[in-house]
Amino acid sequence: MAMLGKRRPPRERTGVSGLQGRQMPHGSTPADGRTGDGTLTIERLAHDGRGVTHSADGKALFVSGALPDERVEVAIHRTRKRFDEGHVRTLIETSPERVEPPCRHFTRCGGCDLQHLAVAAQRDHKRQVLVELLARQGVEAPGHPELLAGRSDGYRRRARLGVKVNAEGGVHLGFRARESHRLVDIQDCTILVPELNALLPTLHALVAELEAPRQVGHLELVSSDQGLVVVLRQLREHTADRQRWLAFAEAQGVHLARLLGRDAPALEWLTPEPALSCRLPTQQGELAMGFAPGDFLQANAEINARMVETALDWLGDIDGIALLDLFAGVGNFSLPLASSGADVMAVEGSPAMVERLASNAHVAGLPIAARQADLGDSEAVAELLASHSPAVMLLDPPREGAEAVVRALHEAPVPRVLYVSCDPATLARDAARLVHGGYRLTRIAVADMFVHTSHLESLLLFETPQAGRQTEGAPLDG
């Protein structure tokens, strides 16, 4: 209590607000023994897109914003026992693959971390990361991964914008800063589809005019075939602000819904409820997949279509074949696969999405059996395998991967397994267990779903030695 009422001595400022450690000025000697003129040469990119170098004693340093072969001055902002973390303070020599970031919010917004690297180099890095992570688990890639790529800007059809009010009453709307809860005001976003990007200035003006902006948690933006959707997360009702939102929706021609309340809020449409849908490719053309706010929907429609087309190509003639689609969502893969004649059982953990999946199948006239099950339970997965006896399995799990499914496949192998992954580390873990259990990895692709980020989506096809090749041609090598 001796300090009560007294001004505390100022804290030592760090290189990055909110992070531990000390900024190392040019020419200083960090605690790990780096010496000389204070400059470092970056050796390679880490899997998360940061530059990597080492001290004389071998301690690793991860440097945000640095590229291979660049010579840099580094500000250390976090010191750990086995490695340090820092960011570029000064670029001395730059990589030929360094480019001017297309977004003015780069380095402040936490949404994109690779905009300083040429897009072609980003994609080469992602393919290399996948191969390296598999190799660490003892899994050899069957050649260079195929690349599923599209446009590098204006691709994202959904986003979540945070709303914050600071101590002075200033209202902020945007994305979180990297490694922080602080919001970065975003007036424009180069990766949003143009229609959503055009809404940002109007949304900024609107939230600044609200009487109760602290009652707004975040905004969900979605682009659908039926137009734009804005979902308002609101803690309490406010009549005057409700009218402001309705006036905005009418003026902008958007569909408006909200989630009201603190605990388990239900979706409420403030404008007439639309039948939202998006298009999926099939071997015969396209079909519509209905969805609702809150359902899982791939953010990049173009790359999602490429992934669906790749699944159809790799699996080949599946007419009449029993196929089990796990983590099926609202039918992203189930619907195109069933339209190709497969006997599809689609399984999803969310009851609401199972209901939507069944509705989508009914509307499309496809005989898909939609079921709800806990796919983290090996016994539940084993029961599904026993009841459907599939010749093909497709699984598209969340970041946690599909450990329970892999365990079940050890006891009851399915001849062909197409694994769609959004996390290469858990994919590599599961791939190793499949290969060690007798599967062969026969095809591999990287899908550049999130350009300018280190996020990596991939598709891997596994086959048992007894499984015949049902697709045409050899595995692609590039």
From TrEMBL:
Annotated Basic residues bias = 1-10
Which enzyme class, named as a word? Answer: transferase
Give the record's keywords alphabetically: 4Fe-4S, Iron, Iron-sulfur, Metal-binding, Methyltransferase, rRNA processing, S-adenosyl-L-methionine, Transferase
Q: Where along the chain is the active site annotated?
A: 422, 422 (nucleophile)
Q: Which EC number(s) are documented for this chain? A: 2.1.1.190
Example GO molecular function: RNA binding
Region: Disordered, residue numbers = 1-38
> Highest taxon of the source?
Bacteria
Catalytic activity line of the entry = uridine(1939) in 23S rRNA + S-adenosyl-L-methionine = 5-methyluridine(1939) in 23S rRNA + S-adenosyl-L-homocysteine + H(+)
GO BP: any one term = rRNA base methylation
Matching entries from Pfam families are given as: TRAM, tRNA_U5-meth_tr
Q: Does the keyword Cell membrane apply?
A: no
TM segment ranges: none
Against Gene3D superfamilies, the record matches this protein to: 2.40.50.1070, Nucleic acid-binding proteins (2.40.50.140), Vaccinia Virus protein VP39 (3.40.50.150)
> What does the entry list as the binding residues for [4Fe-4S] cluster?
103, 109, 112, 189
Which residues of the sequence carry a binding annotation for S-adenosyl-L-methionine? 298, 327, 332, 348, 374, 396
TRAM domain boundaries: 29-90
The record's section on CDD domains has:
AdoMet_MTases
What the record says about family reads: Belongs to the class I-like SAM-binding methyltransferase superfamily. RNA M5U methyltransferase family. RlmD subfamily.
Relate the protein's function as given in its record: Catalyzes the formation of 5-methyl-uridine at position 1939 (m5U1939) in 23S rRNA.
Write the protein's name: 23S rRNA (uracil(1939)-C(5))-methyltransferase RlmD
Organism the protein comes from: Halomonas urumqiensis
